[in-house]
Amino acid sequence: MQCGHQTRNEGFSNWESRPLRGSQALCGADSLSPPKLLPSLNPTYSKSCFGFIPGLECDLALNLVGQHLVRQLVVKGVREFLQNHDPVKPLVMSFHGWTGTGKTYVSSMLVRYLFQDGVRSPYVHQFSPIVHFPHAEQIEQYKENLKSWIQGNLTNCGRSVFLFDEMDKMHPGLIDVIIPFLGPSWVVYGTNYRKAIFIFISNGGGEQINRMVLDLWYARKDREEISLQDLESAVSEAVFENPNNGFWKSGIIEEHLIDLLVPFLPLKQHHVKQCVVNELTQQGLTVHQDIIQAVADSIPYFPEEERVFSSTGCKTVASRVTFFS
Asked: Which of 44, 293, 297, 306 is 20 to 30 A from 279, alpha carbon to alpha carbon?
C-alpha cells in the first residue's frame, strides 16, 4: 500500500489535502522499501556514494564541513529508525547551532535521499514562523490549522517529513499542538503515524554551544573532543527557559519527545576554506588559493582578537566567492 497523493504546503493557502498529479511516494503506509540512491541536485555530491544509508553517510562525510557529531548522530538515528518496521514513535530530531553551520543543509540532504524531489516533494512539509505564523494574536487559529494540516497529511502518507525552521522565532506555545503526533500512541484510521519524521531547526542553544567550544579552545583542547553529553543538557535548558523561543516551557522537551538533539559546532577558518573549495567546485570555477584565502579573510570571526571561529559559519561563502572570483 502506498501513500495517497497530496499537495505541498504552499503558505497554508489550502489546509485541505488535495490530489497531486504525477507524484512519487517513497513512503509506504505499512513498510519502507529499500530506497535507491537518488540523483543529487548538488554537483558536489559524490557519484561514488551508493545506497541510502551508505550514500547519506558518504555525502555527509564529503560535503558537511566540520560537524563530526552531526554525521554520527543523524546517520545512526535515521538508520535505526528506517530499519525498524514497527517504530515505537516518530523520529524527532532537533538541530541546534549558530547560523551557517549546516542545519538546513543537512535536513535538505536527508529528505533528498528519502524522496526523489527532496524538499520539493509533496510529502515534505516545511514551516517557517515568519511565513506561516507571523501574527501572535492569531496563535489559536494557527494551532488549529497546524494540527489539521499534519493530521490530514499523515493520513495520506504516514512516511511524511515535517521541517520546522527557525524555532527560535516561533511563538511560544504554538508547537505544543503537535505533541500528540510525536508520541507512541498515534495509529489511527489504519495509518501508522509513528513512521513520520519531524525535524526542528533552531539557532537556539547556539550561544551555549559556541561557549563550550571556545572554552575548550582556551583549554588547548580540540573541538572534536566534544561529545553530545557535553552539550545536550545545556542546549535543552537554554531553549526551554528562553521565553522568546518556540520551545519555551514546551511539553515536547518536558516529555522527552525529542529523540536526537543534534548540536552544530562553530566552524574554524580551515573549515571555512573547505566551504570555499566546495563552492568553487560547485560553480565550476578553478580552485585558486588566493581566492580561498581572500574569502576566508573577509569573514568575521570570534573572539575578535584571536579570530578563531566564524561568526557566520559558511553562510555567506557563496556570495563572497562570486565577489572575489
From this structure: 306
Give residue-wise pLDDT tens across range 44-80: 334 444 457 788 999 999 999 999 999 999 999 999 9
The rounded distance, in Å, linking the Cα atoms of 10 and 7 is: 8
Residue stretches of the annotated binding site: 97-104
Among residues 314, 281, 277, 280, the alpha carbon closest in space to that of 298 is found at 314
Q: Helix (H, G, I), strand (E, B), or coil: what is residue 83? A: helix
H helix intervals, the chain: 52-63, 68-83, 103-114, 129-132, 139-156, 179-182, 206-218, 228-240, 251-254, 269-282, 289-298, 317-324
Place of cell 562553530: 266
Which of 28, 47, 31 is CA-nearest to residue 39? 47
How far is residue 295 from each of residues 19, 196, 271, 315, 318, measured CA to CA in Å?
Answer: 47, 40, 12, 12, 9
Q: Which of 325, 23, 32, 15 is nearest to 159 (CA)?
A: 32
Map out the domains of the chain with their CATH numbers. 52-264 (3.40.50.300), 269-324 (no CATH)
Q: What are 243-301's pLDDT values in tens digits?
A: 999 999 999 999 999 999 999 999 999 999 999 999 999 999 999 999 999 999 999 99
Q: Which pTM does this prediction carry?
A: 0.84
C-alpha 182 chain-centroid distance = 17
> The cell 505544543 sits on which residue?
176
